[in-house]
TrEMBL record:
SUPFAM superfamilies: Thioredoxin-like (SSF52833). This is Thioredoxin-like protein. Residues 10-215 form the DSBA-like thioredoxin domain. Pfam families: DSBA (PF01323). It comes from the Eukaryota. GO terms for molecular function: oxidoreductase activity.
Length: 236
């Protein structure tokens, strides 16, 4: 019996490196992908991360307190509840969120995410994204630190040496490309992330949960049409 031909399923994941729901949504997608493979769904997954800036007003030259930023945005009482909810939700998929540490503008992280894809496609980009997600959200690393970003880039294979990664970060390479992709996302009407575009046809907004993503994969494998999914109220 001939093997079933796999259907290509591209997932363009528009995200920001400081969005906790982007890390959560990515983890949910990967769990759903593994479940789809166990079910032998005839899908060949292709993932690519694309940039978005949740807060362009954040400084790039100095870090700010992550916790103080959230308290200022939501108020202390509401943030405390949201923090506990997010920690519990993350723990369910193997993420240990910390809301301590610092935050700043994420353009440099996006430049490296694009560079990773240019160097080695999904095989390099995903390990780099996973490294900066884990560092920022779980280990209180500074997402704007060139040292941190360079170390992640070398670990993922974007560059062979830290000096090369630091030289890239000191340049303006891919800055215009990142800006163009962000503008394209805004023209598409993307206001919050994660925002996942499947096969350039279907859009899923928000961290919908691994069960929802798996059901979407089942429908696409069967050739069914999808309605656009959305999720409001992300704490980003």
């Amino acid at each position: 019996m001939a093997a079933t031909a796999l259907k290509q399923l591209t997932l363009d994941i528009i995200s920001d490196s400081i969005c906790p729901f982007c890390y959560l949504g990515y983890r949910q997608i990967t769990i759903a992908m593994e479940a789809a493979k166990k079910e032998n769904l005839p899908l060949n997954f292709k993932l690519r991360f694309k940039p978005f800036l949740l807060d362009p007003s954040l400084p790039s030259d100095k870090p700010l307190s992550k916790r103080e930023r959230y308290v200022s945005k939501f108020g202390a009482s509401r943030f405390e509840k949201l923090e506990q909810q997010m920690i519990a939700t993350g723990r369910a998929v193997g993420i240990n969120y910390s809301y301590d540490g610092s935050v700043r503008q994420t353009t440099d992280s996006h430049r490296l995410i694009e560079k990773a894809y240019a160097v080695g496609g999904e095989a390099i980009q995903r390990p780099f994204v996973e490294a900066i997600f884990a560092g920022y959200f779980e280990h209180e690393q500074d997402i704007g630190s060139h040292d941190f970003l360079a170390e992640c880039a070398v670990k993922a294979g974007v560059f062979d040496a830290k000096d090369a990664a630091l030289a890239f970060l000191a340049s303006a390479e891919l800055k215009d490309d990142v800006k163009k992709d962000i503008m394209n996302a805004m023209r598409m009407g993307v206001e919050g992330v994660p925002f996942v575009i499947m096969n350039n046809k279907y859009a899923v907004s928000g961290a919908q949960g691994q069960d929802t993503f798996l059901e979407i994969f089942r429908k696409l494998a069967a050739g069914d049409k999808l309605a656009v999914e959305s999720d409001e109220g992300n704490m980003c």
